[in-house]
Amino acid sequence: MKINNLIISLIALALILISTTSFSRVIHSERSLYRNIIVEDKKDLRCLKFNVKSSKTNQSCMYKGNPDQLVFNYTKLVFSSLLMIDAPKKVLIIGLGGGTLSNTIHHLYPQATITNVEIDPAVIKVAREYFGFFENDNVTSIVQDGRIFVKRAGIKKEKYDWIILDAFNGDYIPEHLLTKEFFEETKNILTDKGVISANTFSVSKLYNHESATYYNVFGDFINVSNQENSNRIILAGHKALPNITKIKERVKNLHPILKVFGIDINEISKHMASTKKTKDWPENTKVLTDQYSPANLLNL
Amino acid sequence: MTSKTNALIYFLAFSSGFSIMGIELLGGRILAPFFGSSVHIWGSIITVFMLSLSFGYLIGGKLSTKNASLTRYGIIFVLASIMVLPIALFSQPIMEGIFVNVEDSRYGSLLASTALFFIPTIILGMISPYSVRLLVTDSESSGQVAGVLYFVSTLGSALGTIITSFYMVLAFEVNTIIIGFSITLGGLGLVAILAHKASRSVTQSTSQLAVK
Description:
The complex is a heterodimer of chains A (300) and B (212).
Chain A: H1 2-21, E1 25-31, E2 36-42, E3 45-50, E4 58-63, H2 73-78, E5 90-94, H3 100-108, E6 113-118, H4 121-130, E7 139-143, H5 146-155, E8 160-165, H6 180-188, E9 190-201, H7 206-218, E10 222-224, E11 231-236, H8 244-259, H9 265-269, E12 272-274, H10 295-298
Parallel strand pairs in A: 5-6, 5-8, 6-7, 8-9
Antiparallel strand pairs in A: 1-2, 2-3, 3-4, 9-11, 10-11, 10-12
Helix pairs in contact in A: 5-6, 6-7
Chain B: H1 3-35, H2 39-63, H3 70-89, H4 91-101, H5 105-125, H6 127-135, H7 139-171, H8 174-211
């Protein structure tokens, strides 16, 4: 018995030692108006987290030694949008995170104007200080609720040719940014040849509702995902699918440019599936509206 | 007052507490499409609800000093029922108008919640002091009566909050829930009015019996 106990405690001790060798260090934490913001370093990796210290809540990460290299799969998948459109001139990003998307898009298209909309001023500050997020004549950030920004942009008749929906609170996408009415307002500020890219999760009860809602507003859309992770990017709003030769041409042109950022556009292009071929949600799925959007409850 | 009418009054006070908080909770959902989900949205909503409740208490108390009756009590409910309806029927044009004219979403949301919730919540606030008036028979028990009344109506508020936010938003549209509150309030008001009529005819017939 005693020997058994000794062995168990030795194993426990060993496990503790192993787990602490890969420890991470909190280099900044603050409580903003909306959440706790934590910046954490783990070897070369720096991550932005909301609320809790678990890896599940990573909002954004970067390699300190190589900030250009994208860490997250989903950020890489977002660039599949570029197969749908010509070089973007006006980009709108809702939800800043670490500012990775903004930085990367500016590197790719220095002439494009990029508007970042972020509700939490503390997130903008942290992105600037710890994640190298930069602003200049073409790149700006605005502190505002995404819904309000889009509504006002609609009134001012502004148009964007690439709109990226990437707003998350600690749990998921805020409910009022996941309704039919919001998508209609977003569609209203999209140019004829533009595209909307939305970052969503692919494992939740909400999946079907999201699909049904996007389909209701935009018609057929494209799902971009890969088996290994639980993100899916929805590409919507395009009037017609570019033909195969056009897409192949864009893949060929973009491949070397995107490689620098760790994006394999060739590989990503193989994981794009239009809902024209497969609709993977039941036809009677309820569309989310301003009147009915129990989004976060469905996401449990 | 019989114990039956007392029970009815407590139940009505419970239901008004339930409806007030149910509506307040939905307020966040109603305003979000126009004014976002920042903290100041809740600042606006709670301010308007507290302010109108306070006026409601004042007016309800004043009103209870003249000819207080179950019928008048019921009329307050019917009025509340009617004033709650515009939240479901006209909130879109009202908020659109405010959104276009007020850039700052803090004042926009404050104006919008005033436009939508101020009047119905004043009327709902009148119910508590009026209930006290109907329930209290002597000064000795007045504190206890008020205590039970606060208990019942605040319990209603707690349940209205949790049931609306946990379950009703999953099952119904926001407007459906609002209209549900309106119908409940109106129906209960009518029950109070009818109960008053019934008890009056009973007292009349008993007094006629006594005369005979």
